[in-house]
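Query structure, 502 tokens:
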């Protein structure tokens, strides 16, 4: 085991973090991270880990490099395992080599975990292969911002200009006019294609293609700023043909997900696949019950029930947690009919070997009732409903009306997520939110307990509101808002598709 791990976080897309990097982040005592390392990676930190931000961007250094070196040495000497998370690759313009030398001088051990470097990834996400048999057989990575204390430049502009390699400049946007002028004066064709890719691989990626003689003026006109990669060479002519990432329908759109954190990841992943900039603002917390004696008693007598109706993924998970604590398994449900309120709940059951006997066509309680009645639930039918402690009563009330004996079995409880709305308000005011999504009545009610309705109203009609179904929409209307988006199917994938179509 090393004292310090120098980890490449990649250029920003969370999916480009390596498995080895994730493994270390989950076990390290201290996580030291940079400006260009995606904040989402902090979610991998183990509970109680110390998180230290040492970000550096264009002249704004939270902590200068020598102090970062001292920090790593000091904390490692305390016996702490440190994950040093750096944007891109630590050994490609990441100053990882300098940090490694300091650690060796201090008698400490280290391990390098390479990362995907922006000089390859950002062009690839913009449709630009840095090598191509019909264009070039080599690529040169160049810093666009040399160490100002060096006595001699490391650049040989004549070689760069005369080379047919693809040239990839890191950290060079401020010096773009100089870079273009040096290449042209060295003999590079002024018509050579040049591309800029800003925030490469992230949801807010943007790119442009120009020529060497025009790129500085065009970049200034379009206000292209750091962090951007500059690519020089004929491969940039492939940008329009191969630019796959920027064709995603929600690219750059800010989408707020209000689901509980335990439920949000699947929805967030679908949105990211469509290019969205997802902000998780969980309004609900999913909590275990303080006492499960009633659940264990119900499971012990489950043979007396005809149907078991699961109304959520969380209901399935918490029910099974109790089963496993009792050293029981799926066989407990042998002989019972099982219903799931929607496909996600049915999938959660399937993971445990249970094929639902009934999943309604529309995923609200009213349709579950109709389907169960059509399948013989009526006078004297005993129904067990594992669910949240507080939930809509439509399902049990309607089943009781036809004579069913319904027992509500709380297996978890929901609460208000106490995280403040400050980050959301900041993004709203910055114009970074395009959609706010609601997936249940509880998310609506808790959202407006955390954020006053008037605060959201200030940003309409630019900010659109999306509801998963009519029940949620009705709750939203109670706060004075009309949903802009509502899918025909009341599912998370359908909601994501509706956002993309909007």
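Result returned for the query:
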């Amino acid at each position: 085991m090393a004292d310090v791990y120098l980890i490449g976080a990649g250029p920003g897309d969370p999916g480009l973090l390596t498995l080895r990097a994730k493994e270390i982040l989950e076990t390290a005592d201290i996580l030291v991270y940079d400006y260009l390392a995606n904040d989402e990676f902090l979610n991998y930190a183990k509970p109680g880990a110390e998180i230290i931000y040492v970000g550096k961007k264009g002249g704004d250094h939270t902590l200068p490099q020598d102090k970062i070196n001292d920090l790593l040495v000091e904390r490692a000497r305390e016996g702490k395992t440190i994950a040093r998370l750096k944007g891109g690759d630590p050994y490609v313009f990441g100053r990882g080599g300098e940090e490694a030398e300091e650690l060796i001088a201090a008698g400490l051990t280290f391990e390098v975990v390479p990362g995907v470097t922006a000089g390859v990834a950002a062009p690839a996400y913009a449709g630009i292969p840095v090598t191509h048999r019909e264009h070039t057989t080599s690529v040169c990575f160049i810093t666009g911002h040399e160490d100002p204390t060096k006595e001699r430049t490391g650049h040989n502009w004549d070689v760069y200009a005369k080379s047919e390699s693809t040239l990839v400049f890191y950290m060079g946007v401020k010096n773009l006019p100089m870079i273009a002028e040096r290449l042209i004066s060295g003999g590079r064709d002024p018509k050579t294609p040049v591309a800029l890719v800003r925030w490469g691989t992230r949801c807010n990626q943007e790119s442009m293609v120009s020529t060497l003689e025009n790129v500085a003026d065009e970049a200034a006109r379009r206000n292209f700023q750091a962090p951007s990669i500059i690519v020089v060479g004929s491969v940039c002519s492939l940008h329009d043909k191969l630019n796959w990432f920027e064709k995603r329908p929600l690219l750059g759109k800010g989408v707020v997900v209000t689901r509980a954190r335990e439920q949000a990841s699947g929805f967030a992943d679908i949105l990211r696949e469509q290019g969205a900039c997802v902000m998780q603002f969980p309004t609900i917390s999913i909590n275990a019950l303080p006492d499960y004696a009633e659940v264990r008693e119900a499971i012990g007598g489950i043979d007396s029930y005809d149907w078991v109706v699961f109304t959520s993924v969380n209901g399935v998970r918490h029910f099974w947690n109790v089963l496993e604590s009792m050293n029981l398994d799926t066989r407990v449900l042998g002989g019972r009919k099982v219903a799931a309120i929607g496909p996600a709940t049915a999938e959660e059951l399937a993971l445990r070997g249970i094929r639902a006997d009934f999943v309604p066509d529309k995923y609200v309680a009213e349709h579950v009732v109709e389907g169960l009645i059509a399948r013989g639930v009526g006078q004297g039918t005993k129904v067990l409903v594992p669910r949240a402690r507080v939930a809509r009563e439509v399902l049990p009330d309607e089943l009781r009306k036809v004579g069913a004996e319904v027992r509500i079995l709380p297996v978890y409880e929901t609460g208000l997520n106490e995280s403040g709305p400050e980050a959301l308000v900041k993004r709203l005011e910055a114009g970074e939110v395009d959609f706010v999504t609601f997936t249940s009545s509880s998310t609506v009610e808790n959202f407006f307990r955390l954020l006053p309705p008037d605060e959201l109203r200030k940003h309409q009609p630019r900010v659109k509101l999306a509801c998963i179904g009519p029940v949620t929409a009705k709750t939203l209307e109670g706060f004075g808002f009309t949903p802009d988006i509502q899918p025909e199917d009341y599912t998370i994938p359908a909601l994501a598709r509706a956002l993309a179509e909007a």
